[in-house]
Amino acid sequence: MIKVEDLTRRYGSYAAVDSVSFEVQPGTVTGFLGPNGAGKSTCMRMICGLTPPTSGTATVLGKPYAELPNPGRHVGVLLDAAAQHNGRTGREILTLGAIMMGLERRRVDEMLELVGLNKEESRRRLRDYSLGMRQRLGIAHALLGDPKVLILDEPANGLDPAGIRWMRGLLRGFADEGGTVLLSSHLLHEVEVVADDLVVIGRGKIVAEGAKSALLSAAGTTVRTTDDQRLANALESAGFGANPATGGGIHTDALPEQVGRIALEHQVVLTELRQAGTAGLEEMFLQLTAADAREGVAA
Ligand SMILES: Nc1ncnc2c1ncn2[C@@H]1O[C@H](COP(=O)(O)OP(=O)(O)OP(=O)(O)O)[C@@H](O)[C@H]1O
């Protein structure tokens, strides 16, 4: 498991990561979400001992990463798919990894097959790889030592839709066999399909955290009516929030039954009523990270 306690990283007076604490349990995939520049990569680099924290601690399998003996056998890491020697072939990169970890060479072929890189592709130099191929190679490298923990920073970057689905299946299978997965993304949909738990970070601080199902059920209700304004006013007078939903209608924190009763009382005709679920989570994600949304910054 991964345990992060009060982790902080400052660059001058700027806190890129500010007192962040969370745990990632075995058997689960945890999605680490946040907009660009929120602090995900900095946090992951600290977990992997690549960036020293200003304060706080991070342990993987009970120890700081740097103290793990032969860490690749315990923790698979993919932080930057481009961080390999461009002149080496994919096969050479994996073979070097296998030698350093003391693994049998057949593991290289197994991993190449697992990530869908064929013989010819494995003999190409990294500089000639597409972004998606680099990601596949990075995932192969992370899995090489048959680790118990995976730490992946934006692994779906550059993968095509089939590749993204394949990766989700792979991570789900890994967690179902007892593995621990921390997976970052700035795209909610990319991780919410596969994640059990979510940690949402904005401007270096955790803004939401918990089981995806709990976050989804707290995501409110989406409703469409023939008179949205009237229902919105009625919901607000009853003490509920009511905001225009992305794509039309109203998003409210009231339960569907409460919305139905209030609509009946005020004689508003409902044309759609559903738990906001995924859409609500997206709404929440946008709201939680609104302070960081670059699109919202005045020119
Ligand atoms: N070495 C550094 N020196 C100064 N500032 C840094 C350094 N590394 C990161 N930062 C800043 O810390 C903040 C967090 O960056 P980080 O790369 O962790 O974000 P992120 O959530 O991974 O973003 P993205 O989704 O864009 O990859 C950013 O404002 C970034 O500019």
UniProtKB/TrEMBL annotation:
Where the record annotates domain ABC transporter, the positions are: 2-228
Any GO molecular function: ATP hydrolysis activity
- Any signal peptide, and if so, which residues? none
Q: Sorted alphabetically, which keywords does the UniProt record give? A: ATP-binding, Nucleotide-binding, Transport
- What domain of life does the native source organism fall in? Bacteria
Q: Does the keyword Heme apply?
A: no
> What Pfam family is a match, any one?
ABC_tran
Q: Which InterPro entries match?
A: AAA+_ATPase, ABC_transporter-like_ATP-bd, P-loop_NTPase
* Family indicated by similarity: Belongs to the ABC transporter superfamily.
Name of the protein this chain belongs to: ATP-binding cassette domain-containing protein
Tell me the organism: Flexivirga aerilata
